[in-house]
Amino acid sequence: MCAVLSTQILGFLGIELTMKYIVLILFILCVIYVHYRGRVRYSFWRQLSDHSTFTAPLNVFMYLFSRAPTTPYLQPEQFPELAVLRDNWQTIREEGQKLMEIQQIKASDKFNDAGFNSFFKTGWKRFYLKWYDDNHPSAMTLCPQTTALLRGLPSVKAAMFAELPDGSRLPRHRDPYAGSLRYHLGLITPNDDRCFIEVDGERYSWRDGEGVMFDETYLHYAENKSGQNRLILFCDIERPMRYRWAQAVNHWLGRNLMSAATAPNEEGDRTGGVNRLFKYIYSVRKVGKRLKAWNKTGYYIIKWTLFGGIAALIFFSI
Questions:
Q1: 3-class DSSP state for residue 58?
Q2: Half-sphere exposure of residue 10: CA atoms within 13 angstroms, side-chain side
Q3: How far apart are CA 137 and CA 265, in angstroms?
Q4: Beta bridge partners of residue 220, listed in sequence order
Q5: Bridge-partner residues for 125, per DSSP?
Q6: With contact defined as beta carbons under 8 Å apart, do 215 and 237 qualify?
Q7: What domains lie within the chain, and their CATH numbers?
Q8: Which InterPro entries does the UniProt record give (predicted)?
Q9: pLDDT digits (tens, 9 = 90+) for 28-53
């Protein structure tokens, strides 16, 4: 009896261990796919610690079931609902220009915008208009016409005015979530090739009244050396999926995960859970930065030991 029971237990443990390795292999395959998806790639060690490694399974799901092309750039005409923004770009520009004049398009100074915190250091600025079903009271007060246009576009999950002043840049990065596609509408631009965004090695220079659509999960960066500021309308459009059930999954993830990253323009706007925690997380990060400046080798030993420990904990707890 004991022998039979022992055999059954060992068999169960063997199946459980096999399933863990299957999950691990699938995860690794997803990471490899994300890494080699574009022409421009991070180094091995940079990729290993990038957020796109941890969101790889989720994003591969989005790529596999995407109804939109999975190329770096897409044609805005494939999203006919966005025509209303292009048709009203001058109205939108007027409200954006007023915000610039009263200096409301700005960087956060309270560590309450985790998603864009690193961009503030290189000069980028923003003013939120909408973020995954969260409407900003400040935006509705200061930009009534633009927010009214956006309310009529349910596929636009997030929107903001984004300013890239002369001499500023966005470092090379990829966004963590493939459930959306990025749309830029030129409002006040230098109309100059020295002010550009480069997505997977291909450059685009903004033009007034012109829209561009791209997949923000490809590596991209931007810079402005034109001598003039650049203002655009920046929108995240829900990625269209092939099947209704896949679209429902994407919509649910956007509503329940991305909404946690809501950041305020000013007092009275909602702050999501992620950004309420961010100031505490960032204080830990500052300790890490001090350690790195003092002892780079020690920093990396601690970093990779922690990463390895967390990975092992997750693997053996599945």
A1: helix
A2: 6
A3: 9
A4: 173, 199
A5: 163
A6: no
A7: 73-271 (2.60.120.330)
A8: Asp/Arg/Pro-Hydrxlase, Asp/Asn_beta-hydroxylase, IPNS-like_sf, Lipid_A_LpxO-like
A9: 999 999 999 999 999 988 998 899 99
32 phi, psi to nearest 5 deg:
-60, -40
Query: Rounded to the nearest 5°, which phi and psi values hold at 172?
Result: -60, 130
In the block, residue with structure tokens 């915008």: 113
Helix, strand, coil fractions of the chain, as percent rounded to 5 = 50, 20, 30
Is beta strand 220-224 parallel, antiparallel or unpaired with respect to 169-173?
antiparallel
For the chain, strand residue ranges (E) read 73-74, 125-131, 134-135, 156-164, 169-173, 180-188, 195-199, 202-205, 211-214, 220-224, 230-238
What predicted TM-score, i.e. pTM, was given to this entire model?
Answer: 0.89
**What angle (nearest 5°) sits at the alpha carbon of residue 62, between those of residues 61 and 63?**
95
Q: Residue 20: helix, strand or coil by DSSP?
A: helix
Place of tokens 């470092």: 171
> What's CA 237's distance to the chain center, in Å?
12
Residue 185 vs residues 145, 162, 304: alpha-carbon distances, Å:
16, 10, 41
